[in-house]
Amino acid sequence: QVQLVESGGGLMQAGGSLRLSCAASGRTFSNYAMGWFRQAPGKEREFVAAISRSGWNTYYADSVKGRFTLSRDNGKNMVYLQMNSLKPEDTAVYYCALAGTYGTLLYVPSANSEYTYWGQGTQVTVSS
Questions:
Q1: Which residues lie closer than 8 Å to 85 by C-beta, 6 or more apart?
Q2: Interval 11-57: pLDDT, tens
Q3: Is 29 helix (H, G, I), strand (E, B) or coil?
Q4: Which end of the chain is less congested by CB atoms within 10 angstroms, N or C?
C-alpha cells in the first residue's frame, strides 16, 4: 500500500521560505516521477512542480519558476519542495503525488490524471 506523508507547512510572512517534505512508502520509489500540487480555497487543484524518477529533470509551473526548487533523495524515499520568496498567492494546501506509471528517466508529468497516489496535504499560509 502506497503512503505519502507531507510535512513542513505552516504560516510564513511574504518573502520568507518554507521547505515541504514528502515521505513515500509502499512502492519502489525510484521507479516513479513525483509531483506537487496545491489547492487554494474556492479554486481547483493546480500543478506546482514535478521531478523525474531519476531526479535529472524538473518542471515547474510558471507561477513558481525561479522561486521553488524540487529535489528528491531516492535513498531515503523523500521529495523536497524548497519554497523561497513566498507570496500571499502561494497560500494553499500542498499535496505530494506519485505518478501512476513508470516513465523515462526524464518523464515529468504535470496533469492530475498522471498521478495515482496522493498525500493528505499540508497547509501553507503566506501573510502579506
A1: 15, 17, 67
A2: 999 999 999 999 999 888 889 999 999 999 999 999 999 999 999 99
A3: helix
A4: N
